[in-house]
Amino acid sequence: MQYLLLIHGEEGRFANMPKGDVEKMMAAYGAYTQALKDAGVLRGGERLQPSTTATVVRAKNGKTSVLNGPYAEVKEQLGGYYVIEAADLDAAIGWAARCPGASDGAIEVRPIWPM
Amino acid sequence: MPRRFGRRDRSAADLADVTPAAEDAARAAATRVARESYGKLVAFLAARDRDIAAAEDALSDALAAALADWPRRGVPANPEGWLIVTARRRRIDAARRSRIADEASETLRFAAEELQAAEDVGPLPDRRLALMFVCAHPAIDEAVRAPLMLQTILGLDAGAIASAFLVSPAAMGQRLSRAKAKIRLAGAPFRIPERDELPERLDAVLEAIYAAFAYGWEQAFADDPRGRNLAEEAIWLGRLVASLALDEPEALGLLALMLYADSRRAARRDAAGSYVPLAEQDVSRWSAATIDEAERLLRAASVKRAPGRFQLEAAIQSAHAERRHGGATNWPAIAALYDALYALTDSKVVAVNRAVATAEAYGEAAGLALLEAAAADGDLDGYQSYWAARAALAARAGRKGEAADAYRHAIGLEFDPATRVFLIERLALLG
Questions:
Q1: Nearest C-alpha of chain B: how many angstroms from A110?
Q2: How many CB atoms are closer than 10 A to CB A34?
Protein backbone atom coordinates (compact mmCIF):
# COMPACT_ATOMS: atom_id res chain seq x y z
CA MET A 1 0.00 0.00 0.00
CA GLN A 2 1.03 3.61 -0.50
CA TYR A 3 0.77 6.20 2.21
CA LEU A 4 1.12 9.97 2.21
CA LEU A 5 3.01 11.35 5.20
CA LEU A 6 1.98 14.98 5.73
CA ILE A 7 4.43 16.94 7.85
CA HIS A 8 2.72 19.58 9.98
CA GLY A 9 4.82 21.97 12.03
CA GLU A 10 4.98 25.39 13.61
CA GLU A 11 6.42 27.73 10.98
CA GLY A 12 7.13 30.64 13.33
CA ARG A 13 9.44 28.56 15.45
CA PHE A 14 11.30 27.39 12.38
CA ALA A 15 11.74 30.95 11.01
CA ASN A 16 13.43 32.07 14.23
CA MET A 17 15.70 29.04 14.48
CA PRO A 18 19.47 29.72 14.87
CA LYS A 19 21.48 28.80 11.79
CA GLY A 20 23.19 25.87 13.50
CA ASP A 21 19.84 24.31 14.36
CA VAL A 22 18.57 24.72 10.80
CA GLU A 23 21.63 22.86 9.55
CA LYS A 24 21.06 20.08 12.05
CA MET A 25 17.44 19.79 10.97
CA MET A 26 18.37 19.67 7.29
CA ALA A 27 20.94 16.99 8.01
CA ALA A 28 18.32 14.97 9.87
CA TYR A 29 15.89 15.22 6.92
CA GLY A 30 18.70 14.25 4.55
CA ALA A 31 19.48 11.15 6.55
CA TYR A 32 15.78 10.24 6.86
CA THR A 33 15.21 10.61 3.11
CA GLN A 34 18.27 8.44 2.47
CA ALA A 35 16.93 5.79 4.86
CA LEU A 36 13.61 5.74 2.97
CA LYS A 37 15.55 5.33 -0.30
CA ASP A 38 17.78 2.59 1.09
CA ALA A 39 14.73 0.68 2.30
CA GLY A 40 13.24 0.99 -1.19
CA VAL A 41 10.04 2.57 0.12
CA LEU A 42 10.36 6.18 -1.10
CA ARG A 43 7.89 7.04 -3.89
CA GLY A 44 8.05 10.82 -3.71
CA GLY A 45 8.21 13.83 -1.45
CA GLU A 46 8.97 17.52 -1.37
CA ARG A 47 9.53 20.37 1.01
CA LEU A 48 7.05 23.25 0.62
CA GLN A 49 7.55 27.02 0.79
CA PRO A 50 5.98 28.60 3.91
CA SER A 51 2.20 28.92 4.10
CA THR A 52 2.51 32.72 3.71
CA THR A 53 3.21 31.96 0.03
CA ALA A 54 0.00 29.95 -0.36
CA THR A 55 -3.00 30.95 -2.48
CA VAL A 56 -6.44 29.38 -2.28
CA VAL A 57 -8.44 29.16 -5.50
CA ARG A 58 -12.13 28.36 -5.90
CA ALA A 59 -14.25 28.30 -9.05
CA LYS A 60 -17.79 28.15 -7.79
CA ASN A 61 -20.60 28.71 -10.34
CA GLY A 62 -18.09 29.69 -12.99
CA LYS A 63 -16.69 32.52 -10.91
CA THR A 64 -13.06 32.18 -9.94
CA SER A 65 -12.05 33.52 -6.55
CA VAL A 66 -8.45 33.82 -5.47
CA LEU A 67 -7.56 34.30 -1.82
CA ASN A 68 -4.25 35.00 -0.17
CA GLY A 69 -3.10 32.55 2.47
CA PRO A 70 -3.34 28.83 3.25
CA TYR A 71 -6.59 26.82 3.27
CA ALA A 72 -6.76 26.73 7.05
CA GLU A 73 -5.28 29.33 9.38
CA VAL A 74 -3.82 27.00 12.00
CA LYS A 75 -0.70 27.11 14.12
CA GLU A 76 0.78 23.95 12.64
CA GLN A 77 0.96 24.23 8.86
CA LEU A 78 1.76 21.68 6.17
CA GLY A 79 5.48 22.04 5.49
CA GLY A 80 6.23 19.03 3.32
CA TYR A 81 5.29 15.46 2.47
CA TYR A 82 6.56 12.04 1.58
CA VAL A 83 4.84 9.29 -0.38
CA ILE A 84 5.98 5.87 0.78
CA GLU A 85 5.25 2.23 0.02
CA ALA A 86 4.52 0.20 3.15
CA ALA A 87 3.15 -3.27 3.85
CA ASP A 88 0.53 -2.02 6.28
CA LEU A 89 -0.46 0.82 8.61
CA ASP A 90 2.01 -0.26 11.30
CA ALA A 91 4.92 -0.09 8.86
CA ALA A 92 3.75 3.37 7.72
CA ILE A 93 3.43 4.51 11.35
CA GLY A 94 6.95 3.20 11.96
CA TRP A 95 8.31 5.43 9.18
CA ALA A 96 6.21 8.43 10.28
CA ALA A 97 7.55 8.16 13.83
CA ARG A 98 11.13 8.37 12.51
CA CYS A 99 10.49 11.50 10.45
CA PRO A 100 12.34 14.46 12.04
CA GLY A 101 9.12 16.49 11.86
CA ALA A 102 7.44 14.06 14.27
CA SER A 103 9.60 15.23 17.18
CA ASP A 104 8.46 18.86 17.10
CA GLY A 105 5.28 18.70 15.01
CA ALA A 106 2.85 16.06 13.78
CA ILE A 107 2.83 13.62 10.89
CA GLU A 108 -0.54 12.73 9.40
CA VAL A 109 -0.55 9.29 7.81
CA ARG A 110 -3.06 8.95 4.96
CA PRO A 111 -3.54 5.83 2.85
CA ILE A 112 -3.52 6.63 -0.85
CA TRP A 113 -6.62 5.58 -2.79
CA PRO A 114 -5.42 2.97 -5.29
CA MET A 115 -6.52 3.72 -8.86
CA MET B 1 -26.94 -11.13 24.72
CA PRO B 2 -28.44 -11.30 21.24
CA ARG B 3 -26.08 -12.59 18.62
CA ARG B 4 -26.10 -11.94 14.92
CA PHE B 5 -26.35 -15.58 13.92
CA GLY B 6 -29.71 -16.27 15.55
CA ARG B 7 -31.87 -15.42 12.59
CA ARG B 8 -33.87 -17.96 10.61
CA ASP B 9 -34.45 -17.17 7.02
CA ARG B 10 -35.79 -20.26 5.36
CA SER B 11 -38.99 -21.06 3.53
CA ALA B 12 -41.45 -23.54 4.97
CA ALA B 13 -40.80 -25.90 2.03
CA ASP B 14 -37.21 -26.34 3.18
CA LEU B 15 -38.48 -27.89 6.37
CA ALA B 16 -40.92 -30.36 4.81
CA ASP B 17 -38.68 -33.44 5.14
CA VAL B 18 -36.94 -32.47 8.38
CA THR B 19 -37.81 -34.01 11.72
CA PRO B 20 -38.03 -31.67 14.71
CA ALA B 21 -35.26 -33.68 16.44
CA ALA B 22 -32.88 -33.27 13.49
CA GLU B 23 -33.66 -29.58 13.37
CA ASP B 24 -33.01 -29.15 17.08
CA ALA B 25 -29.73 -31.05 16.84
CA ALA B 26 -28.61 -29.01 13.84
CA ARG B 27 -29.61 -25.75 15.48
CA ALA B 28 -27.74 -26.71 18.65
CA ALA B 29 -24.66 -27.65 16.61
CA ALA B 30 -24.76 -24.41 14.60
CA THR B 31 -25.23 -22.35 17.75
CA ARG B 32 -22.34 -24.15 19.46
CA VAL B 33 -19.95 -23.70 16.51
CA ALA B 34 -21.01 -20.07 16.22
CA ARG B 35 -20.47 -19.48 19.92
CA GLU B 36 -17.09 -21.17 20.06
CA SER B 37 -15.76 -20.38 16.61
CA TYR B 38 -17.36 -17.11 15.53
CA GLY B 39 -14.26 -14.98 16.13
CA LYS B 40 -11.97 -17.65 14.70
CA LEU B 41 -14.05 -17.73 11.52
CA VAL B 42 -14.21 -13.93 11.19
CA ALA B 43 -10.47 -13.62 11.84
CA PHE B 44 -9.67 -16.27 9.24
CA LEU B 45 -12.02 -14.77 6.64
CA ALA B 46 -10.86 -11.17 7.17
CA ALA B 47 -7.12 -11.63 7.75
CA ARG B 48 -6.17 -11.59 4.10
CA ASP B 49 -7.86 -8.45 2.80
CA ARG B 50 -8.73 -6.88 6.20
CA ASP B 51 -12.38 -6.60 5.22
CA ILE B 52 -14.14 -7.42 8.50
CA ALA B 53 -17.59 -6.31 7.34
CA ALA B 54 -17.48 -8.58 4.27
CA ALA B 55 -16.24 -11.47 6.42
CA GLU B 56 -19.10 -10.98 8.87
CA ASP B 57 -21.68 -10.83 6.10
CA ALA B 58 -20.33 -13.97 4.46
CA LEU B 59 -20.24 -15.81 7.78
CA SER B 60 -23.76 -14.72 8.62
CA ASP B 61 -24.94 -16.15 5.26
CA ALA B 62 -23.00 -19.35 5.92
CA LEU B 63 -24.61 -19.78 9.34
CA ALA B 64 -28.05 -19.28 7.82
CA ALA B 65 -27.16 -21.87 5.17
CA ALA B 66 -26.05 -24.27 7.92
CA LEU B 67 -29.42 -24.00 9.61
CA ALA B 68 -31.09 -24.92 6.32
CA ASP B 69 -28.67 -27.68 5.33
CA TRP B 70 -27.61 -29.48 8.52
CA PRO B 71 -31.07 -30.66 9.64
CA ARG B 72 -31.42 -32.55 6.35
CA ARG B 73 -27.91 -33.82 5.68
CA GLY B 74 -26.63 -34.01 9.21
CA VAL B 75 -23.97 -31.94 10.94
CA PRO B 76 -20.71 -32.13 8.90
CA ALA B 77 -17.62 -33.78 10.40
CA ASN B 78 -15.75 -30.47 10.29
CA PRO B 79 -18.38 -27.78 10.93
CA GLU B 80 -15.81 -24.94 10.99
CA GLY B 81 -14.44 -26.06 7.62
CA TRP B 82 -17.96 -26.31 6.21
CA LEU B 83 -18.74 -22.76 7.33
CA ILE B 84 -15.47 -21.39 5.93
CA VAL B 85 -16.01 -23.00 2.53
CA THR B 86 -19.62 -21.80 2.41
CA ALA B 87 -18.68 -18.28 3.52
CA ARG B 88 -15.95 -18.16 0.87
CA ARG B 89 -18.42 -19.21 -1.82
CA ARG B 90 -20.78 -16.48 -0.66
CA ARG B 91 -17.97 -13.97 -1.01
CA ILE B 92 -17.24 -15.16 -4.52
CA ASP B 93 -20.93 -14.78 -5.38
CA ALA B 94 -20.95 -11.31 -3.83
CA ALA B 95 -17.80 -10.36 -5.76
CA ARG B 96 -19.34 -11.58 -9.04
CA ARG B 97 -22.24 -9.26 -8.43
CA SER B 98 -19.89 -6.41 -7.64
CA ARG B 99 -19.69 -3.82 -10.40
CA ILE B 100 -16.08 -2.87 -9.74
CA ALA B 101 -14.26 -5.37 -11.90
CA ASP B 102 -10.78 -4.98 -10.43
CA GLU B 103 -11.95 -5.38 -6.89
CA ALA B 104 -13.97 -8.41 -7.91
CA SER B 105 -11.10 -10.19 -9.59
CA GLU B 106 -8.84 -9.46 -6.63
CA THR B 107 -11.46 -10.83 -4.22
CA LEU B 108 -12.02 -13.84 -6.47
CA ARG B 109 -8.35 -14.65 -6.50
CA PHE B 110 -8.12 -14.44 -2.71
CA ALA B 111 -11.33 -16.36 -2.31
CA ALA B 112 -10.25 -19.17 -4.61
CA GLU B 113 -6.95 -19.54 -2.75
CA GLU B 114 -8.60 -19.43 0.64
CA LEU B 115 -11.23 -21.91 -0.48
CA GLN B 116 -8.48 -24.28 -1.50
CA ALA B 117 -6.72 -23.69 1.82
CA ALA B 118 -9.90 -24.32 3.79
CA GLU B 119 -10.49 -27.59 2.00
CA ASP B 120 -6.88 -28.69 2.38
CA VAL B 121 -6.18 -27.87 6.00
CA GLY B 122 -8.02 -29.60 8.76
CA PRO B 123 -8.08 -27.42 11.85
CA LEU B 124 -8.57 -23.71 11.33
CA PRO B 125 -5.58 -21.53 12.29
CA ASP B 126 -6.53 -19.35 15.23
CA ARG B 127 -6.04 -15.69 14.31
CA ARG B 128 -8.31 -14.29 17.00
CA LEU B 129 -5.46 -12.67 18.91
CA ALA B 130 -4.41 -10.84 15.73
CA LEU B 131 -8.03 -9.75 15.27
CA MET B 132 -8.07 -8.45 18.85
CA PHE B 133 -4.93 -6.42 18.14
CA VAL B 134 -6.62 -4.94 15.07
CA CYS B 135 -9.72 -4.02 17.09
CA ALA B 136 -7.58 -2.31 19.75
CA HIS B 137 -5.14 -0.73 17.28
CA PRO B 138 -3.96 2.74 18.39
CA ALA B 139 -5.33 4.14 15.11
CA ILE B 140 -8.85 3.01 16.12
CA ASP B 141 -10.97 5.32 18.28
CA GLU B 142 -10.58 4.14 21.87
CA ALA B 143 -14.32 4.25 22.57
CA VAL B 144 -15.09 1.75 19.81
CA ARG B 145 -12.39 -0.84 20.59
CA ALA B 146 -14.41 -2.82 23.15
CA PRO B 147 -17.62 -2.79 21.05
CA LEU B 148 -15.62 -3.84 17.99
CA MET B 149 -14.13 -6.79 19.86
CA LEU B 150 -17.51 -7.87 21.22
CA GLN B 151 -18.90 -7.84 17.71
CA THR B 152 -16.08 -9.42 15.73
CA ILE B 153 -14.88 -12.00 18.26
CA LEU B 154 -18.19 -12.91 19.88
CA GLY B 155 -20.72 -12.01 17.20
CA LEU B 156 -22.86 -9.77 19.40
CA ASP B 157 -25.22 -7.61 17.40
CA ALA B 158 -24.81 -3.83 17.27
CA GLY B 159 -28.13 -3.20 19.01
CA ALA B 160 -27.20 -5.27 22.03
CA ILE B 161 -23.78 -3.64 22.26
CA ALA B 162 -25.37 -0.20 21.92
CA SER B 163 -27.75 -0.74 24.83
CA ALA B 164 -24.96 -2.09 27.02
CA PHE B 165 -22.83 0.98 26.25
CA LEU B 166 -25.77 3.39 26.66
CA VAL B 167 -25.70 4.80 23.11
CA SER B 168 -28.28 4.58 20.35
CA PRO B 169 -28.11 1.53 18.05
CA ALA B 170 -27.76 3.83 15.04
CA ALA B 171 -24.79 5.65 16.56
CA MET B 172 -23.13 2.37 17.60
CA GLY B 173 -23.71 0.84 14.16
CA GLN B 174 -22.12 3.87 12.54
CA ARG B 175 -19.09 3.82 14.85
CA LEU B 176 -18.56 0.13 14.22
CA SER B 177 -18.79 0.40 10.45
CA ARG B 178 -16.53 3.47 10.41
CA ALA B 179 -13.91 1.55 12.41
CA LYS B 180 -14.13 -1.45 10.07
CA ALA B 181 -13.78 0.83 7.05
CA LYS B 182 -10.69 2.39 8.59
CA ILE B 183 -9.13 -1.02 9.26
CA ARG B 184 -9.68 -1.99 5.63
CA LEU B 185 -8.73 1.28 3.93
CA ALA B 186 -5.84 2.35 6.16
CA GLY B 187 -4.40 -1.17 6.18
CA ALA B 188 -4.32 -1.96 9.92
CA PRO B 189 -2.48 -5.29 10.00
CA PHE B 190 -3.82 -8.62 11.32
CA ARG B 191 -0.71 -9.61 13.20
CA ILE B 192 0.72 -10.04 16.67
CA PRO B 193 2.92 -6.97 17.37
CA GLU B 194 6.67 -7.35 17.74
CA ARG B 195 8.21 -7.91 21.17
CA ASP B 196 9.20 -4.27 21.70
CA GLU B 197 5.72 -2.89 21.10
CA LEU B 198 3.78 -5.87 22.45
CA PRO B 199 3.26 -4.74 26.07
CA GLU B 200 1.78 -1.39 25.04
CA ARG B 201 -0.42 -2.88 22.34
CA LEU B 202 -1.55 -5.69 24.62
CA ASP B 203 -2.51 -3.06 27.21
CA ALA B 204 -4.94 -1.58 24.69
CA VAL B 205 -6.52 -5.01 24.14
CA LEU B 206 -6.80 -5.62 27.89
CA GLU B 207 -8.17 -2.11 28.50
CA ALA B 208 -10.90 -2.72 25.93
CA ILE B 209 -11.87 -6.04 27.54
CA TYR B 210 -11.91 -4.41 30.96
CA ALA B 211 -14.06 -1.55 29.62
CA ALA B 212 -16.61 -4.12 28.42
CA PHE B 213 -16.50 -5.81 31.82
CA ALA B 214 -16.92 -2.52 33.68
CA TYR B 215 -19.92 -1.57 31.55
CA GLY B 216 -21.45 -4.96 32.20
CA TRP B 217 -20.71 -4.60 35.89
CA GLU B 218 -22.29 -1.17 36.25
CA GLN B 219 -25.28 -2.31 34.26
CA ALA B 220 -25.57 -5.37 36.47
CA PHE B 221 -25.85 -2.97 39.37
CA ALA B 222 -28.52 -1.02 37.52
CA ASP B 223 -30.99 -3.92 37.52
CA ASP B 224 -30.38 -4.74 33.88
CA PRO B 225 -30.04 -8.43 33.01
CA ARG B 226 -28.08 -7.54 29.86
CA GLY B 227 -25.29 -6.17 32.03
CA ARG B 228 -24.66 -9.51 33.65
CA ASN B 229 -24.21 -11.00 30.20
CA LEU B 230 -21.76 -8.36 29.03
CA ALA B 231 -19.60 -9.00 32.12
CA GLU B 232 -19.68 -12.72 31.28
CA GLU B 233 -18.72 -12.04 27.68
CA ALA B 234 -15.79 -9.92 28.87
CA ILE B 235 -14.60 -12.75 31.13
CA TRP B 236 -14.83 -15.06 28.12
CA LEU B 237 -12.65 -12.62 26.12
CA GLY B 238 -10.27 -12.44 29.08
CA ARG B 239 -9.96 -16.23 29.13
CA LEU B 240 -9.32 -16.21 25.40
CA VAL B 241 -6.57 -13.59 25.53
CA ALA B 242 -4.97 -15.28 28.56
CA SER B 243 -4.92 -18.59 26.68
CA LEU B 244 -3.55 -17.07 23.46
CA ALA B 245 -0.97 -14.71 25.02
CA LEU B 246 0.48 -17.24 27.43
CA ASP B 247 3.55 -15.37 28.58
CA GLU B 248 1.83 -12.12 29.38
CA PRO B 249 1.33 -11.62 33.13
CA GLU B 250 -1.02 -8.67 32.64
CA ALA B 251 -3.41 -10.85 30.62
CA LEU B 252 -3.51 -13.28 33.57
CA GLY B 253 -3.86 -10.32 35.95
CA LEU B 254 -6.88 -8.98 34.10
CA LEU B 255 -8.62 -12.36 34.08
CA ALA B 256 -7.91 -12.78 37.80
CA LEU B 257 -9.26 -9.29 38.50
CA MET B 258 -12.52 -9.94 36.66
CA LEU B 259 -12.94 -13.30 38.39
CA TYR B 260 -12.45 -11.80 41.87
CA ALA B 261 -15.19 -9.29 41.12
CA ASP B 262 -17.41 -12.00 39.67
CA SER B 263 -16.90 -14.22 42.74
CA ARG B 264 -18.74 -11.65 44.85
CA ARG B 265 -21.68 -11.16 42.55
CA ALA B 266 -24.24 -12.99 44.70
CA ALA B 267 -23.12 -11.20 47.86
CA ARG B 268 -23.53 -7.69 46.45
CA ARG B 269 -27.28 -7.68 47.05
CA ASP B 270 -29.19 -8.71 50.15
CA ALA B 271 -32.46 -10.70 50.13
CA ALA B 272 -34.42 -7.51 49.42
CA GLY B 273 -32.15 -6.63 46.49
CA SER B 274 -30.40 -3.79 48.28
CA TYR B 275 -26.75 -2.96 47.67
CA VAL B 276 -24.31 -4.44 50.20
CA PRO B 277 -20.87 -2.79 50.45
CA LEU B 278 -17.82 -5.07 50.34
CA ALA B 279 -17.04 -4.68 54.04
CA GLU B 280 -20.51 -5.87 55.02
CA GLN B 281 -20.84 -8.74 52.56
CA ASP B 282 -21.55 -12.27 53.78
CA VAL B 283 -18.36 -14.10 52.79
CA SER B 284 -20.19 -17.43 52.65
CA ARG B 285 -21.96 -16.09 49.54
CA TRP B 286 -18.68 -15.53 47.68
CA SER B 287 -17.85 -18.21 45.11
CA ALA B 288 -14.91 -20.15 46.54
CA ALA B 289 -14.17 -21.93 43.26
CA THR B 290 -13.97 -18.62 41.36
CA ILE B 291 -11.69 -17.08 43.99
CA ASP B 292 -9.45 -20.18 43.87
CA GLU B 293 -9.13 -19.85 40.10
CA ALA B 294 -8.31 -16.14 40.42
CA GLU B 295 -5.65 -16.90 43.06
CA ARG B 296 -4.01 -19.50 40.79
CA LEU B 297 -3.94 -17.04 37.89
CA LEU B 298 -2.48 -14.27 40.02
CA ARG B 299 0.25 -16.58 41.34
CA ALA B 300 1.10 -17.68 37.79
CA ALA B 301 1.33 -14.02 36.77
CA SER B 302 3.50 -12.94 39.70
CA VAL B 303 6.10 -15.63 38.90
CA LYS B 304 6.94 -13.60 35.77
CA ARG B 305 8.07 -10.67 37.93
CA ALA B 306 6.59 -8.00 35.68
CA PRO B 307 3.98 -6.21 37.78
CA GLY B 308 1.40 -4.02 36.10
CA ARG B 309 -1.91 -2.31 36.60
CA PHE B 310 -4.15 -5.36 36.35
CA GLN B 311 -1.95 -7.54 38.55
CA LEU B 312 -1.92 -4.82 41.24
CA GLU B 313 -5.70 -4.48 41.08
CA ALA B 314 -6.07 -8.24 41.27
CA ALA B 315 -3.68 -8.34 44.23
CA ILE B 316 -5.91 -5.83 46.03
CA GLN B 317 -8.92 -8.06 45.37
CA SER B 318 -6.90 -11.04 46.58
CA ALA B 319 -6.23 -9.21 49.86
CA HIS B 320 -9.95 -8.53 50.26
CA ALA B 321 -10.71 -12.18 49.52
CA GLU B 322 -8.56 -13.21 52.52
CA ARG B 323 -11.56 -12.36 54.67
CA ARG B 324 -13.22 -15.61 53.59
CA HIS B 325 -10.83 -17.45 55.90
CA GLY B 326 -12.23 -15.49 58.84
CA GLY B 327 -9.29 -13.12 59.28
CA ALA B 328 -9.40 -9.33 59.46
CA THR B 329 -8.69 -7.36 56.28
CA ASN B 330 -5.04 -6.32 55.98
CA TRP B 331 -5.68 -2.64 55.24
CA PRO B 332 -2.05 -1.43 55.42
CA ALA B 333 -1.18 -3.98 52.69
CA ILE B 334 -4.14 -2.85 50.57
CA ALA B 335 -3.23 0.83 51.07
CA ALA B 336 0.36 0.08 49.96
CA LEU B 337 -0.91 -1.72 46.83
CA TYR B 338 -3.10 1.31 46.05
CA ASP B 339 -0.09 3.62 46.49
CA ALA B 340 1.77 1.59 43.85
CA LEU B 341 -1.29 1.52 41.59
CA TYR B 342 -1.82 5.28 41.89
CA ALA B 343 1.82 5.95 41.04
CA LEU B 344 1.36 3.79 37.94
CA THR B 345 -2.03 5.00 36.68
CA ASP B 346 -2.74 8.46 38.11
CA SER B 347 -6.43 7.54 37.78
CA LYS B 348 -9.26 9.24 39.68
CA VAL B 349 -10.90 5.88 40.45
CA VAL B 350 -7.66 4.72 42.05
CA ALA B 351 -7.24 8.03 43.89
CA VAL B 352 -10.59 7.55 45.63
CA ASN B 353 -10.09 3.87 46.47
CA ARG B 354 -6.60 4.61 47.75
CA ALA B 355 -7.98 7.27 50.11
CA VAL B 356 -10.60 4.83 51.42
CA ALA B 357 -7.99 2.10 52.03
CA THR B 358 -5.69 4.61 53.72
CA ALA B 359 -8.54 5.70 55.98
CA GLU B 360 -9.12 2.06 56.97
CA ALA B 361 -5.44 1.54 57.67
CA TYR B 362 -4.46 4.85 59.26
CA GLY B 363 -7.67 6.71 60.19
CA GLU B 364 -10.25 8.97 58.55
CA ALA B 365 -8.06 12.08 58.72
CA ALA B 366 -5.35 10.45 56.59
CA GLY B 367 -7.94 9.29 54.06
CA LEU B 368 -9.70 12.65 53.85
CA ALA B 369 -6.36 14.42 53.37
CA LEU B 370 -5.63 12.20 50.34
CA LEU B 371 -9.12 12.84 48.93
CA GLU B 372 -8.71 16.60 49.30
CA ALA B 373 -5.33 16.50 47.57
CA ALA B 374 -6.71 14.41 44.68
CA ALA B 375 -9.74 16.71 44.28
CA ALA B 376 -7.72 19.95 44.38
CA ASP B 377 -7.87 20.51 40.62
CA GLY B 378 -11.66 20.05 40.42
CA ASP B 379 -11.44 16.90 38.24
CA LEU B 380 -13.44 14.84 40.74
CA ASP B 381 -16.41 17.22 41.06
CA GLY B 382 -18.64 15.14 38.77
CA TYR B 383 -17.43 11.78 40.04
CA GLN B 384 -19.99 9.99 42.19
CA SER B 385 -17.56 7.66 43.98
CA TYR B 386 -15.51 10.62 45.18
CA TRP B 387 -18.52 12.19 46.90
CA ALA B 388 -19.69 8.86 48.32
CA ALA B 389 -16.23 8.16 49.77
CA ARG B 390 -15.87 11.67 51.13
CA ALA B 391 -19.33 11.46 52.73
CA ALA B 392 -18.57 8.15 54.44
CA LEU B 393 -15.18 9.28 55.76
CA ALA B 394 -16.43 12.68 56.93
CA ALA B 395 -19.39 11.02 58.69
CA ARG B 396 -17.04 8.67 60.55
CA ALA B 397 -14.77 11.58 61.46
CA GLY B 398 -17.80 13.38 62.95
CA ARG B 399 -17.73 16.17 60.36
CA LYS B 400 -21.52 16.11 59.90
CA GLY B 401 -22.02 19.19 57.73
CA GLU B 402 -19.32 18.12 55.27
CA ALA B 403 -20.72 14.57 55.21
CA ALA B 404 -24.30 15.70 54.50
CA ASP B 405 -23.16 17.96 51.69
CA ALA B 406 -21.10 15.16 50.14
CA TYR B 407 -23.99 12.64 50.46
CA ARG B 408 -26.27 15.06 48.58
CA HIS B 409 -23.73 15.35 45.75
CA ALA B 410 -23.33 11.55 45.63
CA ILE B 411 -27.11 10.93 45.55
CA GLY B 412 -27.52 13.44 42.73
CA LEU B 413 -24.87 11.70 40.61
CA GLU B 414 -25.96 8.07 41.24
CA PHE B 415 -27.44 5.94 38.42
CA ASP B 416 -28.45 2.85 40.37
CA PRO B 417 -31.73 3.01 42.33
CA ALA B 418 -30.58 0.49 44.99
CA THR B 419 -27.36 2.41 45.66
CA ARG B 420 -29.30 5.67 45.75
CA VAL B 421 -31.59 4.27 48.47
CA PHE B 422 -28.52 3.14 50.41
CA LEU B 423 -27.01 6.65 50.24
CA ILE B 424 -30.28 8.34 51.24
CA GLU B 425 -30.47 6.07 54.30
CA ARG B 426 -26.90 6.96 55.26
CA LEU B 427 -27.69 10.66 54.91
CA ALA B 428 -30.73 10.25 57.18
CA LEU B 429 -28.59 8.51 59.80
CA LEU B 430 -26.47 11.66 60.17
CA GLY B 431 -29.39 13.26 62.02
A1: 7
A2: 11
Helices (H), B245-383: 249-263, 288-302, 309-321, 331-345, 348-362, 364-375
From A88's Cα to the closest Cα of chain B, the distance in A is 5
Whether ipTM tops 0.95, in short, is no
Q: Which of B100, B106, B182, B185 to mutate to test the interface with A (most CBs of A within 10 A)?
A: B185
- Low-confidence spans in chain B with pLDDT less than 70: 1-2, 4-18, 98-122, 219-228
| Contact residues, chain B, for A94 at CB < 8 Å | none
* Closest C-alpha to B165, from B182, B150, B183, B155: B150
Q: Kindly report the nearest CA distance between residue B183 and chain A, in angstroms.
A: 9
Q: Which residues of A touch B187 (CB under 8 A)?
A: 1, 86-89, 92, 111
Which residues are CB-contacts of B4 (< 8 A; sequence separation ≥ 6)?
B56, B60, B151, B155, B156, B157
Measured between beta carbons, the chain A residues lying within 8 angstroms of B139 are: 89, 93
Q: Which residues pair with A59 in a beta bridge?
A: A64
Q: What is the pLDDT along chain A (115 residues), one digit of tens a residue?
A: 999 999 999 988 877 889 898 899 999 999 999 999 999 999 999 999 999 999 999 999 999 999 999 999 898 999 999 999 999 999 999 999 999 999 989 999 999 999 8
